[in-house]
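Subject line: Sequence and fold of a protein, written as C-alpha cells
Body of memo: The sequence and its C-alpha cells, given next.
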Amino acid sequence: RRRTRVRRRACGEVKRTQKILAMSSAAALSPAALALRAKLTAKVQNRRSRMSAKVVTRAAVAAPPGVSADTVNDAINTVRFLAIDAINKSNSGHPGLPMGCAPMGYVIFREAMTHNPKNTKWFNRDRFVLSAGHGCMLQYSLMHLTGYPSVSIEDIKQFRQWDSKTPGHPENFITDGIEVTTGPLGMGICNAVGLAMVEKHLAGRFNKPDCEIVDHYTYCIMGDGCNMEGMSGEGASLAGHWGLGKLIVFYDDNHISIDGHTDISFTEDVVARFNAYGWHTQHVENGNTDVDSIRAAVNAAKADPRPSLIKVTTLIGYGSPNKSNTHDVHGAPLGKDETAATRENLKWKYGEFEVPEAVKAYMDCSEKGTAAEAEWNAKWATYKSKYAEDAAELESIMSGKLPSGWEKSLPTFTPEDKGVATRIHSQTMLNALGGAIPGFMGGSADLAPSNMTLMKQFGDFQKDTPAERNVRFGVREHGMGAIANGMKLHSPGIIPYCATFFIFSDYMRCAMRIAALSQAGTIFVMTHDSIGVGEDGPTHQPIEHVASFRAMPGMDMARPADGNETAAMYKMAVENSMNGAPTTLALSRQVVPNLAGTSMEGAAKGAYVVQGAAAGEACDVILIGTGTELELACQAGAELESKGKKVRVVSMPCWEAFERQPAAYQESVLPAAMRAKTVSIEAGTTFGWAKYAGASIGHDDFGASAPAPILYKEFGITADAMAAKAMSL
C-alpha cells in the first residue's frame, strides 16, 4: 500500500479534490469516489457557465475635444525629434521606426490606452509591447511625454549610456513602466499574446454580469522583422485559436530591413496570413499623417471579438529628405546635417530635446490615468464586498501573495513508496500546486501525455472556456516559452509552467534566456532528460543541455533524483517565480526509486549528503550524483565502503541553489581540499563538473538508439565505473 505522506491544505473542496487525485487507481474508481468527482465536476461546470467570456469594450477613440490638429501634429513631431536627438547624442540607435511610427504611437499612448503613468503596477491598466524593440526611443519618448516619472528628459539624453533608464532595447527590469523585455524579433508579439491570454483567463474566471472587474487591452507594435521570425506566427496562430479579442497589434509596414528593401526576401501577404489565423485585419494606407484612420482602425478592432491586426503602411524615417525609405535610417543616427534638413522639412522650429509647452500639457496622462484607476478602485471595493471568495483569489494573483501553507500541498516519500519516473512525480506536484495556488497554470507543446503536465482538476483554456487552467500550446516551443513569459509578467501571482522534451528546449532557448534576463519567473518543465530516453536515439537525447542552462545567468537548473527532490525543486521553482527568477526542471523518463537519504529540506540547499560520512566529517572520497544517476552514486558508495573506504555520497540537484548557501555549508559538504578525491556522475556532458570534482563519469558525445540500460552500459555510466574511478584517485 502506498505510504506517501501528503500534507494537504485543510480547506473544503480543494482538500477533497486533492484526495481523489492522490488515490490509487482502484480507489479512484470506487462508487464513492466517482460520485464525489461527479459532484465536483458539476459544480465547476456550473461555475464556468456563469463566467462571462465576452469581450468588454471601452469608449471609442476620438480626437480630444478642444485640441487643435496643430497640437496633435506637434505632439507627433515631438516624439520624432526626441528620438532623433537622443540617437544623435548617443551616436547609436534606430531612428527610422520612431519617425515612421510616431502617429500610431501617439494614438495608442494618448488616446487609446487606459494607463496611469503614476502607478505602473495598477492591475487593470492597458499593456503595451514594442515587439520591434530596436525602435525603443518611440516608447521612451511617449512615456516621457505622457508623464512616466521613470523617463525624464535627462533619461532621454542618456539613451544607451551606462546605468541609464533608457537602454538600447526595452527592459522591464530597468525602466519602470516597460511591461516586457524585447529585442529578439518576434518575441514581443508572443509576450503580448501571453499578456492578452491572462486577461481573457482572469476575465472569464472572475468577471460577473454586474461587475466586470477585469477589462483591459494589450497593444503591440511589430515590424517586418517580427513577421519574418517564425515564433510570431506561432503566437499569432494561438491568439486566433484562443479568440484573444483584447489584443490589438499594429504592423509597421515600412518595407525596410537591415539588408535593404524587404522585397529581396519577404513578399508574402501578411494580412492574408493573419486572416487565416482567425484575426480581424485592417489596413491603414497612410500611417505617416492619417491619424483619423488610425483612430478608426482602433475602434473597429475594439468592436470585433477576434484579435486584431492593423497593418499601417509607413515611410521609415518619415520626414528625412535624404534617408527616409532607405535602410540607412534603420539603424544609424541621422547625423547633424540630415537632422537639420529634417527639421526644415517638417517645419520644426524647436531646439534639441525641446518639448513645446502646449505639447507638454496636452500629452500628460497622469490626471486621466489617476481618475481611471480611482474609478476601478471603487468597482473593486464593490466586488470585494459582493464576491469575497473570488476577490481573495484575484487579490492573490494581483499581489503575488500566495495562500498560507501552499507548500504543505507537496507530498513527501519514503523508500517503501513505489518508484516512478520523476516526470510522474512532477505530475503529482503540478496537481498539488494547482489546487493550492490560484494563479498556477500552464501546459505542454503537444506532449502532455508524455510530459505528464495536465492538472486533472481543471479543463482546457480555450476560446469558450477561458476560466480553465490547462493550456494547450500545440507544437510551438519557441512561441510557448515567450507566451509563458508574458503570462508571468502580467501579474505577480500568475505562476506559469510550460513543458516539452528537454531536447526541444533548443527551440525555445531564446525565450528561456529572456525569461532569465527579464526576471520572468516561468517554470520550464523538461522531461526525457538524458540518454535514458533510449530507443528514440540521439535526435531526442539531451547531452549538453543541463550544462548549457547551468551556464545561463539567472536560471536555476534543477535535476531531481526522486519524489522528495522533485517536491523540493517545485517548491524552489514557485519561490523563484515569486522572486523574479525562472527555473528549468530536468525530469526522467525512466523509473527511479525513492532513496533513503533524500529529503525536501536537504534538496532545497542544492547539494547535501544522502549517504555515508556526514557533512564536515573526514572521508576518503566524495561521490556526487544528480537525477537518475544518484542511485548509481549510492551503489558505488556502498561498494567502496565494502572495500574499507570512508565515503560521502552527495546529491546535487541544483548547483545554483547550492551556491546560494553560506560558504561554511558549502565547504562542509564539498571541501575544496577534497576536490581531487571527488567523482561526479551524470548522464550527459562532463563539461563544468571540474568546478566540483577531480574526475567525472558522463558522456561527451551524441547518444545512440538502444534501450536505456544498454546505453548506460556501453557509455560507461555505471556504479562499477564510478567506484573504479574513485579507487584510482
Notes: Confidence is low (pLDDT under 50) at residues 1-56. The first strand starts at residue 5 and ends at 6. The CA atoms of residues 556 and 656 lie 6 Å apart.
